[in-house]
Amino acid sequence: MNKFVILTILYSINGAFGALPPTIPRCRRDHPNMSQCIVNAIEALQPRFATGDLGGGWIVPKLEPFTIKELNYGDDGGLKVHLRGLNIYGTSKFKVDKLRANAQELKFDALVALPTFEIHSKYRMEFNFLGARLKSNGDYFAEHTGAKLIMPLRGRRIMQNGIEKIRFDPIKIKFDRGTVTKLRISNLFGGNKALEEIVHSLLINNPDFVYKNVYPQLESELSKLFTDIANKIVETTTYDEMFPLQ
């Protein structure tokens, strides 16, 4: 194989990677404040996360709305809720409060604020009340505020066709806090005010119930979503382009 053919192949391989669009900021490997540089880059991209179009043909999963097929919580002995067709709004408004970054080892630990997000869905509910098993279904709306997410991101530098690329491991997001501040459930037990008050009190005035039943499932779904976004961003680029020497 002559030198021209080898160079052509190498050029083609490199052409298949890299070429980050100018809308995606880079952080130099020797940046004196890598953490702040990455935060600035995220903030510059933030308006684009809503639609998932980062520019230049870079498409990632969108954040508005963030959709979940179904979510179940509660227990057989008390309140049991099944939500389906969830549309969650507000996840694109996240803010990175703190970030500890090590670009060389691809270790990033973030504390992310999610000031307000809303869940819109259909619901089916069952409730044991004085020995009777009551059932209800309709529209469900809940507003959550003050959520904090602990988000550890770990990556690996891997060689592919002689090119060093990045692959991120599954993120394991944890909710640190957050409360339900508004709740609207249509046709709740035929409009029985006493039962409505019990359910509303359980979801709004009992944060432990939400932490135990609702947030773990949201953690799992958000972990998948942000892992997909991170890997889509680096899917066809290289480590050297994402974190250039100069």
Task: Characterize the structure shown.
The structure is a single chain. With 246 residues, the protein is α+β, with helices and mostly antiparallel strands. Helix content is 30%, strand content 40%. It contains 6 helices and 7 strands. It has helices spanning 3-16, 34-49, 193-204, 207-213, 215-234, 239-242, and strands spanning 66-74, 79-89, 95-102, 107-129, 132-160, 163-168, 174-185. Strands 1, 2, 3, 4, 5, 6 and 7 form a 7-stranded antiparallel sheet that branches. It is elongated and about 70 Å long. The two termini are 34 Å apart. The model is unreliable at 1-17 (pLDDT under 50).
Question: What tags apply to this protein structure?
Answer:
alpha+beta; seven-stranded antiparallel β-sheet; 40% strand; elongated; disordered N terminus
SSE inventory with pairings:
Elements: H1 3-16, H2 34-49, E1 66-74, E2 79-89, E3 95-102, E4 107-129, E5 132-160, E6 163-168, E7 174-185, H3 193-204, H4 207-213, H5 215-234, H6 239-242
Antiparallel strand pairs: 1-2, 2-4, 3-4, 4-5, 5-6, 5-7
Question: TL;DR of this structure?
Answer:
This protein is of the alpha+beta class and 246 residues long. 30% of the residues lie in helices and 40% in strands.
**Which radius of gyration do the C-alpha atoms yield?**
23 Å
Which parts are unreliable, with pLDDT below 50 for 5 consecutive residues or more?
1-17
Strand share of the residues? 35-45%
Q: Helical stretch count?
A: 6
Write the element-wise H/E pattern from the N-terminal end onward. Answer: HHEEEEEEEHHHH
What is the multimeric organization of the chains shown? single chain
